[in-house]
# Entry
Amino acid sequence: MTSTPRRVFDCFVFDGSVDRIVSRLSEFWDVVDEFVVVEPISDPDEQQASSAIRQCWAQLRPYAKKIRHVVVPGSETAGDAALGECLVWNAILRGLIDLEASDLVLLSGGGCQLTLDAVARARQDLIHDVIECGCSHARGGEGSVTVSGSWQACRPQALAVTRDELARRSPAELAAAFGIDGAFDHGTAPTARQDQSDPSNPMIICPHLRPEDELRVRDAFGLDDARGRDLPFFFWQDTELIGPERAFEHCWSQFPDRDVIIIHPDMRPMPNDTSNRWYEDLLRWVDRLPDAAAVACDLLYPDPTSTGWPAVQCAGGTLINGAISHLGGREFPYDGSFTGARLVDWVTFGGLYLRRSFLDIVGSFDPDYEWAYVMDVDYSMQMRVAGGNLYQVPVNLIHEESGSTSEFLIKEEYQQKLRSNQETFSRKWGALLTRPGFESQSAHEYANQYAEGDAFGRCLELIRRHGRTSGTHIDIGCGMGAVADPIRDHGFDYVGFDLDQTAVDRLRARGFQAQLLDLGDPEGAREAILDVLGHRELASVSMLDCLQRLPNGPEVLRMLRQLAEGCGTILVVSVPNVSHFDLGAKLLSGRWDYTETGILDRTHVVHYTEEHLRDVALLRRGARHILTIEMHRALRWLQQAGHEVEHGRLATARGAEQGVSPTIFKRHFQRQ
# Structure
């Protein structure tokens, strides 16, 4: 067993006194690794209160490196004592997202007081999960450490508990341990912002490479005329090529008491924003989001999509299973779904508001990164670990994406720096990002995962073998988009359609285009699909494990087949096989057990056999539309039955060779 002391997290609720926080930080600085300070703030008269901690930040700045500041807006506490329990779960745990199994969390409340010696000795205890850490009125005396396996026995004392012990406790037990017994009314009245030169307003920093870059920004934002003369811009030329992120850091270090907004030289206001409304709009959003470490504008390309929508350049970053991606693309429409403030996994450092307290807490960019790229994702993760939320808001700026960093990437030297940064990020954050439960996943019963050889993997194989080599793939009934990433990885654009808003939102959050679609009206659905497709070439269509849930399956299938054939491409369909041997065996024993997923999923309204699927797929019109059955679990069965499957052609045991039509169907032989 290692003798390395445990990391210690001291978690407590701000009681309105900054002086007491300073005293606690000073006393326990040497024995505590992180101080998680939860600040509930009131919401008087529906006007959000300001953070008292931020208003007194100068007192706390010397301790910033160990502070995690978690703000709970008034709407979350709302005068209800029972919501104190929610605060424990939703706020305290937000400051503990990187907690390891061996770490200790200090809980103290209800008059209990930690003692320095007790915490120091608990830090050295590498065995126990619950440790009493002293109290001014402790039975064991000042500074005592008592081991106990019972939470009830420890409740009168200040506690040190492990991650697993914390997870086993109910909100009520945690609330009692924190001494939370009522609603919260901390915080101060919001400070009214004055004119744009007010020192309480953020500085707008804009590092650049060339003198003409500054001239372009001045012209775009009207800095030399009435449009933007009062905007507090700060320009700095990066003559040493230190890279954009470290240039940002150089700029914000010139204003140690102010928040900052980062603008790139290739950004400008929207064409209809002739008075820099974006600035005031962004400040209003920031005031409404006291829990935010950073608030990002939705950035748009100057040119619309082929369907006429504004095109999203970046509307938020995603980290799905550790993979860095973002919401955007030249054919990604900025439609009516981008409303309100939206939590995101990371924010791009452009068109971004950064709070000074989190700049002090996180500090400099990690020196292990080189030049540019990925560094903003890393910094975003550090702000999240420090207790801050990251938001995208519907405030728009044009980002031409013609910045100077792109011109360097044609050189192998800089491509290697990018690859190195990606590897550094994976080493640093991979374990945390792939930890079960790290990201808040929306519950969805059809959040299937892609794997080679399963229904989704075979879909991609069919598309590669029989479909076009480029273009847009349309996924009907996409659910959580199990094939989205592999489809995109093979060079196709991906568009998902589903009736479930949650599924659509999740796909969009991963950076894919997704639209709501109701298949109850097949012809109306066809028109909606074509509208979204626009002038793009249709590469292929899929409907995987969806047909069995449709009462009008034949009509929908007819529409999709006509759509695919009209574009000269393929349609891949997957359904569970109800004539599977397993079900036959169950029927012989008198069983027909519905399940939550699988062949007898409760949501299936039609059960398909191979013959039934042929009837529905080919409509028994006698045309040369051939049903090709390809499935990893079916191939061996087909060969044993006398069939040969080779190069997309099916030769029957009777020797009649049948060609493969533009429409290819895949039957899903699924075992339970």
Observations:
- The CA atoms of residues 649 and 659 lie 6 Å apart.
